[in-house]
Design a protein that fits this description.
Two copies of one chain form a homodimer. Chain A is mainly α and 179 residues long. Chain A folds into two domains: 82 residues, Arc Repressor Mutant, subunit A (Orthogonal Bundle), CATH 1.10.10.10; 83 residues, no CATH class. Helices cover 64% and strands 5% of the residues of chain A. Chain A contains seven helices and three strands. Chain A has a three-stranded antiparallel β-sheet. At the A-B interface, helix 1, helix 4, helix 5, helix 6 and helix 7 of A face helix 1, helix 4, helix 5, helix 6 and helix 7 of B. The first copy, chain A, binds a DNA duplex (28 and 28 nucleotides) through helix 3. Chains A, B: This is PadR family transcriptional regulator. Chains A, B: InterPro entries: Tscrpt_reg_PadR_C, Tscrpt_reg_PadR_N, WH-like_DNA-bd_sf, WH_DNA-bd_sf. Chains A, B: Pfam families: PadR, Vir_act_alpha_C.
Chain lengths: 179, 179
DNA sequence: CATGCCATGTAAGCTGTTACATGATTCG
DNA sequence: CGAATCATGTAACAGCTTACATGGCATG
């Protein structure tokens, strides 16, 4: 039940149309909650139905026309409640770890190339995050609470990618012990 | 498309009934791929249909009777192919990071308790993993390839939980800067 | 007016979750 | 035999993915 809250957050930061939201879910918001345009349009419909958001009056109801949404008070209350609600972390579900376990049973022939590929992808993501950090959060600058929270979230992304690059490097080293 | 492969891996390690699989998905396998008994029974049916596994002949087809499954050659081939198939890492989708971002917009009142709760949960999980490591992988003992791969997977779990405990600790510290 | 792009949507299928149903076995 | 437990399912629904459909607008 997180997608509606991701959308509410995005719309509170800046009222947008469906396509603009989609673009933002490919960048900042998408770094910790991804979504496709189909998901977004469907969810916008539900949120409007529920009275949590509304289309700005300027927009005509015809297809192919841009439609901007903004959050209503009920939507803000819903989001505020969700932020502090007790919700346990989901158990891990990672295909790559599973594949290593499977390799223990059927053999790891050819798996190394896939590890190398993943390592490159995670390194690239890590570089992107650190560039954002250098640009948006220079030392001795964070002041508002929103800044501190955004920086924390970015740090989460950075440390997660750091974990993956380190773990994959270790894994590849282990492969070369007995190649 | 990972659940069928998780089941194939589990059945290759040891032929089992649906309920036995469910129990194993609450322990070792479940540490990186969780599944409920409903998912497992449904998937067992599909795998049998596809000719990847079969029920051992001893079992009668009546309801409430134990039914053991084993992997057929086609199932092993399917799993072998999957292990080396190129499959990109999924974009991150983490509700807690999202909640922090939302807190930047609607305020972080009451969020601290939730962070404390999550920290405790991750600490417990980390303790469980390190206990397993101490028991199953004592120093200077890993020899077979299967051992090395299993240890790598466990290290993944340990380092992931280490990341979360560290990140949550940092987050709580940041909250106390301006409480 | 044809092409490409902007923008919003529909439909089908798969995965995962939640709640409930049914039969077999064991033990007091 | 009544209750608890083992074991296998069914049903309904929510969320996500993939492919496709439709209309508006700008530009050569």
């Amino acid at each position: 039940m997180s997608l509606p809250h991701a959308i509410l957050t995005a719309l509170l930061e800046k009222p947008s149309s469906g396509l603009e939201l989609t673009r933002r879910f490919d960048r900042s918001i998408g770094y910790f909650w991804s979504a496709t345009h189909q998901q977004i349009y469907r969810e916008l419909g539900k949120l409007e139905q529920a009275g949590h958001i509304r289309a700005l009056p300027a927009a005509q109801p015809t297809r192919g026309q841009k439609k901007e949404y903004e959050v209503l008070p009920a939507g803000r209350e819903e989001l505020t409640a969700w932020v502090t609600k007790a919700e346990d972390p989901k158990p891990v579900r990672d295909p790559l770890l599973l594949r290593l376990r499977a390799a223990g049973v059927v053999g790891s022939e050819g798996l190394e190339a896939e590890l190398v590929r993943h390592l490159a992808l995670h390194r690239r993501q890590l570089a992107e995050y650190t560039a954002i950090e250098a640009r948006d959060f220079p030392p001795e600058r964070t002041t508002t609470e929103q800044d501190r929270l955004r920086h924390l979230v970015l740090r989460g992304g950075i440390e997660l990618e750091t974990f993956w690059t380190k773990w994959l490097t270790d894994a590849l080293a282990a492969f070369h012990v007995n190649p």
